Amino acid sequence: MWELTIADLDDLTLGATLLGTGGGGDPYIARLMARQAIEDFGPVRVVTPSELPRDARVLTVAVIGAPTVIIEKVPSGTEFVAAVRALARHLGDEPAAIQPIEVGGMNTLVPIAVAAELGVPVVDADGMRRAFPQIEMTVFTLGGIPAAPMSVADEKGNLVVFEATNNLLAERLARSTVITLGLANAISCYPLTAGQVLEHGISGSMTYCVQLGARLAAVRRGEPGAYQEFLRFAQAREFFSGKIVDIDRHTTDGFARGTVTVEHFADPDRTMRIEIQNELLLAFEGDRPVITAPDLICMLDHEDASPITTETLAYGQRVDVIGMPCAPEWHRDGMLELVGPRAFGYDIDYVPLGGVAR
Amino acid sequence: MWELTIADLDDLTLGATLLGTGGGGDPYIARLMARQAIEDFGPVRVVTPSELPRDARVLTVAVIGAPTVIIEKVPSGTEFVAAVRALARHLGDEPAAIQPIEVGGMNTLVPIAVAAELGVPVVDADGMRRAFPQIEMTVFTLGGIPAAPMSVADEKGNLVVFEATNNLLAERLARSTVITLGLANAISCYPLTAGQVLEHGISGSMTYCVQLGARLAAVRRGEPGAYQEFLRFAQAREFFSGKIVDIDRHTTDGFARGTVTVEHFADPDRTMRIEIQNELLLAFEGDRPVITAPDLICMLDHEDASPITTETLAYGQRVDVIGMPCAPEWHRDGMLELVGPRAFGYDIDYVPLGGVAR
Known about the structure:
2 copies of one chain form a homodimer.
Chain A: E1 2-4, H1 9-19, H2 27-41, E2 44-47, E3 57-60, E4 62-65, H3 67-70, H4 78-91, E5 97-99, H5 106-118, E6 122-123, E7 125-126, H6 139-142, E8 150-153, E9 159-163, H7 167-181, E10 184-188, E11 192-193, H8 194-200, E12 202-203, H9 205-220, H10 226-234, E13 237-252, E14 255-264, E15 271-277, E16 279-285, E17 288-292, E18 296-301, E19 318-324, H11 335-339
Parallel strand pairs in A: 2-6, 3-5
Antiparallel strand pairs in A: 1-2, 3-11, 4-10, 7-12, 8-9, 8-10, 13-14, 13-19, 14-15, 15-16, 16-17, 18-19
Helix pairs in contact in A: 1-2, 1-5, 1-9, 2-5, 9-10
């Protein structure tokens, strides 16, 4: 158990933005929400799943929608607690703790705000240790844990509770609801027990996120050797450095989709193309896939090493493209069907980055 | 109070098909469901709202989707009771009676099957006394009664419960869910009290439907004077007799939409064009609107006077087009905004058929 205070939010936000791989919602807004909640309700305890009773009820909370919308349609904040309360009521149960479903972007910070308000701890675990665009894309799905019952709430008082026979249908039901409710809503899904988190979740992801953020902060401060230490800690590698020469972006089917092309600084004949569905999913150098989901593609600003989210990509931006292996918990049966390139409709093979992080 | 038995089902089905104005789902399947339920669980009591305690909980049940799909995707039956039970659970309340939300097509008969299974009466009232394609299109909406909380269920165990801030949004949320779940699902909406039914509903619609069906049955048996008696009872008028010379039909946005054109038997220069959104909505002779929502457009087979549903319209079919005034309960503030031609996107005025039925 450790206590998360306002002093931790900078590193946490930086790590979360990086792990968001370009998606996961605008971390700036969520950081303000978390800060306000800690000011109002006090620091949040971060507990490992083993510190909770095995049958303790753990509920998740996240923003769901398209980041391109979320950055403009600022959440009121009430919808997150409303989603959790609705699911708790449906289950006839109160949450003993809140857990992020993805440690990546906004969805790392929103659970902290909700936990502070509800006066319960946050569990140091998640289902992705990155961001993914669809609800079913969690290690919990690999573990056979249903995403439903789940709830979706908006800021006006609209509220939907779902039971779904499988996690892909849960995603489709939530997505069609979110399209109707304006593409920036709150969701609580995968109601878990602490025992299930321990068995199937990715443990330590909140702590990892803060540590990763602290190392990236050192890079941003220009500390000597900090970039190498950051890459070592993340087991990451720099794949490309260049200038954005093309962005094609559209919001469709409830997602922000697009393609971004980067031209190499040293050799203009070398280009990297990155495919987006809310998150950065696949990186190609020429026609050759070099970083593929579920491994992480992170884009850093070449000047100040700040992680770039897909909704802020801009023509002419100078960027470094980093590849990081996904959490080792992903490497089990069913991974490629669930979150490999073909799960996103690309007919290419997964290119493992080798080495498993941490 | 009267007891609805298998002997009533033929007239009820015939009346319901007519009041379905071409929509409301395939009555044949629903008739089999109602028959089976009465055989299994016994006759169903039909009660007026005033025969129930004022605060008695009345829940509705209906099929929701596109008739073109419903005719092919036969319901399993379990989804209807599942939708009612889910809403009852959400409300923390048990239904004292079941009520059709529309007396028109399948949705007149489904509530009978559910009432039989649950062992509760059916309320002799509804919210339309015809079929309409959208959930918010009820006299309850005119009375300020919210459609939500509501529930949607499918035959596989998928289940969604909604709270919505207004009835149009309730429709849009249900529609997007139904599109995801396959366009033929069960819905329970407008949870009411008997007092609300009495104050805002259309009373006697079940009885009216049986009586109307009995008169149409007499027409179909070729009894002398039966057609005139049928028209008189329904306050109806025959507007057109001819042959279907064109049908344009497509299933889009979760509805069956289209246009059917009829050429007059006696004068081939006269054509009637009828616009469809699940139901027959507007009838034009040439460019002149002659029957408009919320009044009823009913198509009868010219040979045997059987009412024709939109999904069975066929080229070359010989038909009579009947116009019937809507239930008098519709005539109050807000009617045209909710169910007039412009509510369906047609920039024409309502053409009252004059006289209000019964």
